[in-house]
Design brief:
heterodimer, A: about 450 residues, alpha+beta, Beta-Lactamase, Heat Shock Protein 90, 3 domains, five-stranded antiparallel beta sheet, five-stranded mixed beta sheet, 8 helices, 12 strands, about 55% helix, rod-shaped, B: about 250 residues, alpha/beta, Rossmann fold, Arc Repressor Mutant, subunit A, 2 domains, five-stranded parallel beta sheet, four-stranded antiparallel beta sheet, about 45% helix, about 20% strand
């Protein structure tokens, strides 16, 4: 039932709520206009009546009852003061002059302001509404001076009609708009829901549709898509880890196992056994080293450490690492230069970054010939972004190989024989990703320059 | 047994020293709380070879009971125990005012796990799998920590003296010029003189690194330091213990 679904959308509910609020405010507004306008009209007619009364009073004083009758007759027939109502009666309430046929029942009793209805016999129609003031004159005569108030009633009717219409139009527009909006939103959301359903059913290549308008639904879809990309990257990473483990852990473990088996086949010779066991421990250590490196990469890639990031002084980090490697570099006949410019700082995980610097220095030491120079620097660039640079004068990495060496277990063919898990640069790459840092490998002419650029610090 | 022979290499330093100091005393008692029977047996065997008396509890409640009723020099507590987290045992003991040094064993790696362990009251944290030599060196360090006098301003080992205030080092009165890191390494070695200090311990204590850089770097540092210390003297003080670490001791 698509109609019912449409009515159950939150957009539609909001539209109805909005419509109700809008309707209330329309009522309020028209009510206020009515109330103040009617007030003005009443005040005006009362003022007019008072003015008439003043005129009549003057005439009455000047010329007595006779003069009053004359004026009333004249005014009752006057086209201009059509709305004026006059009636003069004798003490028995018989009309003497005026344009009312009889004294209204509502106006019997003491002189006062009174509202009443006039029923015309000719032409017969709706009763007119009138407002008047009554007086008791000398000699028991009664005088009524008033005005026709039909205008006020008409105005009220108009206002009431306007209110009804406004409410009707508000309701129609609100409901229609609500339905339209709901349908539109539902349509967009349905597309996203369908996408996620497809993903739930296993089609991980599915992505949310992006209309290209750049609206909030597009942003939602884009965010979801980025999230999905990240998830599939992680899943690929996990598949990659599984493959890597199969590749680089299975072979040393099976080698280890064969060695033990073969040793057992031989004659029991303590010296041989000892040698085999020592070799086995060595290999187990190498397997553990690889395993730990994989775990470190997985840890960096999981992003779990991001919550414990702290502000790090990169200069100190670089200095510590240099102090560890300085002696080793000198032993190898290499020169290790450290420079810290400014106060480069970044939010990060101390252990992972130290390990990355150590890995980069390990690589540099391994690949730089005796007499070569290794430079380690921490600095702040012109945009205020902190950088760590490690460069060496080794053989460098050909441009086409630079992306590949950041992958797990990548080792250049000519370095296959050298020791190392081949995970050093992958660890650096994973750590860079964790820190949103840009990792670049460049030609140091000659040699390799590795540049780790951290994001600009957030203004404190 | 070859195992025994191998252990002797590790045990040669620490317990020999302890033995010299503690003649007439009963052997130091160690409590192992570990549910993996085989791992516990290896550990117990190794520690006995090194001259310790070892008790073993295979679960948390038993371990807690032993720890509260018997006096131990140190405890080795596995984190994942049936029925009880090893950290919980340590927390309970500390709450009762028990200050026995505790070495926590765990398969859980990572700096945050280590911090958790130390916060619970552990004195050291070792990740599985570990080398026995590493565990032994750390255990010796823990036992030593309980004995050392707290406020020393000069450390002395044989004719080697390290002044913590002026940050100067002399051997037989002759000044030795050290880089700041070398000074820190030497200070740590002197505080643990006569014991094996492993590379990992040095990396943790001197650099606050909780990962293993290429092992060679520490070796080079030590050989530099050794050169400065022992260059003009017949009897070397700083020795490498093969497969385990380094040991600083007064020449006999």
């Amino acid at each position: 039932m698509p109609q019912i679904r449409l009515l159950r959308t939150s957009t539609f509910r909001y539209a109805v709520l909005y419509m109700a609020v809008f309707g209330l405010s329309v009522c309020g507004l028209l009510g206020f206009v009515y109330w103040s306008t009617v007030g003005v009209i009443e005040a005006q007619s009362d003022a007019t009546i008072e003015a008439e009364i003043t005129g009549l009073e003057e005439r009455y004083r000047a010329r007595g009852l006779f003069g009053l009758v004359e004026v009333i007759r004249a005014r009752s027939t006057d086209e201009v003061s059509e709305r004026g109502i006059y009636l003069l009666t004798d003490p028995l309430m018989n009309p003497l002059a005026g344009n009312l046929t009889r004294w209204p029942d509502e106006a019997r009793g003491d002189p006062r302001w009174v509202d009443f209805r006039i029923q015309h016999a000719d032409p017969p129609g709706a009763p007119q509404i009138a407002r008047a003031r009554t007086f008791a004159l000398q000699g028991g005569f009664h005088l009524l001076v008033g005005r026709d108030m039909t205008e006020r009633a008409e105005f009220r009717d108009t206002m009431f009609d306007a209110l009804i219409w406004a409410l009707a139009i508000t309701a129609a527009l609100g409901l229609g708009g609500g339905l339209l909006l709901s349908r539109n939103f539902l349509h967009r959301l349905d597309a996203i829901n369908e996408g996620s359903q497809a993903i739930l059913h296993g089609d991980l290549t599915q992505r949310m549709p992006v209309s290209g308008s750049g609206d909030e639904y597009d942003r939602l879809a884009q965010n979801l898509n980025e999230m999905l990309d990240q998830i599939s990257r992680l899943m690929e990473g996990m598949r990659g880890v599984a493959n890597d483990i199969a590749h680089d852990l299975r072979s040393p473990i099976s080698r280890l196992r064969s060695r033990l088996e073969v040793t057992l086949m031989d004659e029991a010779d303590p010296a041989k056994y000892r040698a085999a066991l020592e070799k086995t421990i060595e290999e187990a250590d190498a397997v553990l080293e690889t395993f730990n490196a994989l775990l470190a990469i997985a840890l960096a890639e999981s992003g779990a450490l991001r919550k414990s990031f702290e502000r790090l002084d990169l200069g100190a980090l670089v200095g510590d690492a240099a102090e560890l490697y300085q002696a080793a570099a000198e032993e190898l006949g290499q020169k290790l230069d450290v420079s810290v410019a400014g106060t480069p700082a970044a939010m990060g995980d101390r252990n992972l970054l130290s390990q990355s610097i150590a890995n980069l220095l390990d690589n540099a030491l391994k690949h730089t010939p005796a007499g070569g120079a290794i430079r380690l620097a921490a600095r702040t660039d012109m945009d205020g972004r902190a950088e760590i640079v490690v460069s060496d004068t080794g053989p460098g990495i050909p441009p086409e190989e630079r992306t590949r060496v950041l992958e797990r277990f990548a080792r250049l063919d000519n370095s296959r024989s050298t020791r190392g898990s081949g995970l050093g640069l992958s660890q650096v790459a994973a750590t860079a990703r964790l820190h949103d840092a840009d990792l670049t490998l460049e030609d140091a002419c000659p040699g390799l320059r590795v540049l780790l650029r951290f994001p600009a610090p957030r203004p404190a | 047994m070859r195992f025994r022979a191998r252990l002797r290499i590790y045990c040669a330093t620490g317990v020999a020293a302890a033995g010299r100091m503690g003649c007439g005393l009963t052997r130091m008692r160690i409590l192992i709380i570990e549910d993996d029977a085989e791992a516990a047996a290896f550990l117990a065997k190794g520690l006995k070879e090194c001259g310790f008396a070892v008790d073993h509890a295979a679960n948390g409640p038993d371990g807690l009971h032993l720890a509260t009723t018997e006096p131990y020099g140190a405890m080795i507590v596995d984190r994942m125990l049936p029925g009880m987290d090893g950290l919980h045992i340590v927390e309970l003991l500390r709450k009762e005012g028990n200050a026995t040094p505790v070495l926590i064993l765990s398969a859980m790696d990572g700096v945050d796990e280590r911090v958790k362990g130390l916060r619970a009251g552990g004195d050291d944290y070792l990740t599985k799998p570990y080398a026995f030599s590493e565990l032994h060196a750390r255990l010796e360090a823990l036992l030593r920590r309980g004995r050392s006098a707290p406020a020393e301003t000069t450390l002395r080992v044989g004719d080697l003296a390290l002044d913590l205030l002026s940050r100067s080092v002399t051997r037989a009165g002759r000044p030795i010029d050290l880089l700041p890191r070398e000074f820190q390494i030497l200070e740590f070695l002197m505080r643990h003189s006569g014991q094996v200090v492993t590379r990992t311990m040095l990396l943790e204590q001197v650099w606050n690194y909780h990962f293993d850089p290429k092992t060679g770097v520490i070796d080079v540092q030590i050989s530099r330091l050794r050169q400065k210390l022992d260059k003009d003297f017949d009897k070397p003080m700083l020795q490498t213990v093969r497969g385990a670490g380094y040991c600083l001791r007064a020449p006999d």
